[in-house]
């Protein structure tokens, strides 16, 4: 009798469903699962390990590298090499925490589960959601194709060096800097890089034949009354043209045209550029906005004072993916992490939540090489200044704080749970 191939044998057998069922992976139990190993996730994990030394803690993060993104403005301005902004993720995982080197793909708060890309199921008593923000490069037609050619962006690690090259090698013409209609991380950076570029144009002698345009979807140069007049004077002194309530909606790379929508009228304005820097539109990661923890606007739905989820009391969150109505900065994360950990520890013990977040955030606004306005404020846009002098004035000391002190503080203290 001759051998029969499997395909032939299949034809001889009755047709039936012969699929093999695969059992789900067993649930891995942890007291606390932190989704995200960026600034927010690592800061919370480090502080939590200090507060509860024996806590069974897992951090879900696929990236092998961690970036101090506030430095990227100065990288784009030619001050630092981009390598100065990175460390290995492994070097930052708190001792005793389990690192799950995968992406979370599903959050199931009804079952107290996080599901990873490989199908691992992580059970928890409490969940901290801190996955950062999503850069929506494809939301602007033409942006991805133009990026790195005539268009730069300090929101892309890959294109930081090219952004500086575009500024450094610019020969004059129209330089356009944009700010989108969506919330973004480090919103002040859209104008910081513009001021550094303007300084560079002056230093190399081409500012006289250069038109600098700030096209912003915002209604003014800055939303906080304490600092807006100073920034208005910076713009006026530099001769920068402002187009407020203008949102970038498309780029035509072949003709080097930026298409802007005037948000009050719907009118389209086409602006030809020789250099274009884009602050891209951003949103909560799909993991959040397509899941059960999102609010109506797609952001992680949190109580703005306790940082507890609005519908799931054992879920907390912070950082750029959150609905908190304050600027998305590292300084905000630092303040939020203190409140979150205090409340999470109380929640694990079955106690009332003791801490409240007032919306504190800070934005060191570089206004040129060697000059900086340190904006600090709360939910009500009231100043929350650290130093005993007028922080609305441009100061060299604050620039040096940004350049030299804050990076060291970040790596050595904040991410170790000590700052």
Overall description:
The protein has 419 residues and is an alpha/beta fold. It contains ten helices and 21 strands. The chain has helices at 6-12, 39-51, 72-76, 143-146, 160-168, 189-203, 228-238, 286-289, 330-348, 396-412, and strands at 27-35, 57-60, 65-67, 86-88, 98-100, 104-108, 113-116, 121-129, 134-135, 151-152, 173-179, 210-216, 241-244, 246-252, 257-262, 268-272, 275-277, 282-283, 315-317, 361-368, 371-377. Strands 1, 2, 5, 6, 7, 8 and 19 form a seven-stranded mixed sheet that branches. The protein has a five-stranded parallel sheet with strand order 10-17-11-12-13, covered by helices on one side. Strands 14-15-16 form a three-stranded antiparallel sheet, with no helix packed on it. A hairpin with a 4-residue loop joins strand 14 (246-252) and strand 15. The model is unreliable at 1-21 (pLDDT under 50).
How many domain units? 2
| Broad CATH class of the largest domain | Alpha Beta
How many beta-strand elements? Answer: 21
The biggest sheet, with number of strands, parallel, antiparallel or mixed sense and barrel status, is: 7 strands, mixed
> Which structural class should the secondary elements be placed in?
alpha/beta
How would you sum up the global shape? globular
Rg value: 24 Å
| Named CATH topology of the largest domain | FAD/NAD(P)-binding domain
**First and last CA, distance:** 79 Å
Q: CATH architecture of the largest domain, please?
A: 3-Layer(bba) Sandwich
> Which superfamily, in CATH terms, is the homologous superfamily of the largest domain?
FAD/NAD(P)-binding domain
> Roughly what fraction of the amino acids lie in strands?
15-25%
